[in-house]
Design a protein that fits this description.
96 residues
């Protein structure tokens, strides 16, 4: 039953409902921060990365029809951004 409710929220977001987007954000922000924290120790940086993943989702919201694909997108976006940052840091350290 909960998945059906979450999927209806995704459809509302797809139609531009900002309050539904805010609800989704509030539901997922803490778990995404924790997930990003497994990669990074910089709280401000991981907050920026998570925020950017939500911005990206909002910009592509027409591509999503259910909560599973949204969560997959957000977690994958956060993971990739964290790994890209770490990779960039490694390159910078190598050139110092």
């Amino acid at each position: 039953m909960a998945v059906f409710i979450e999927d209806s929220i995704i459809l509302e977001i797809k139609n531009g409902n900002k309050s539904s987007f805010q609800g989704l954000y509030e539901m997922l922000i803490s778990p995404l921060y924790s997930f990003a924290g497994k990669f990074l120790n910089d709280t401000l940086l991981l907050e920026d990365i998570v925020q950017e993943s939500f911005v990206s989702y909002w910009g592509n919201r027409d591509d999503f029809d259910n909560i599973a694909t949204v969560k997959s997108f957000l977690y994958t976006s956060v993971r990739n951004a964290c790994l890209n940052y770490l990779k960039h840091q490694k390159v910078e350290q190598k050139h110092e």
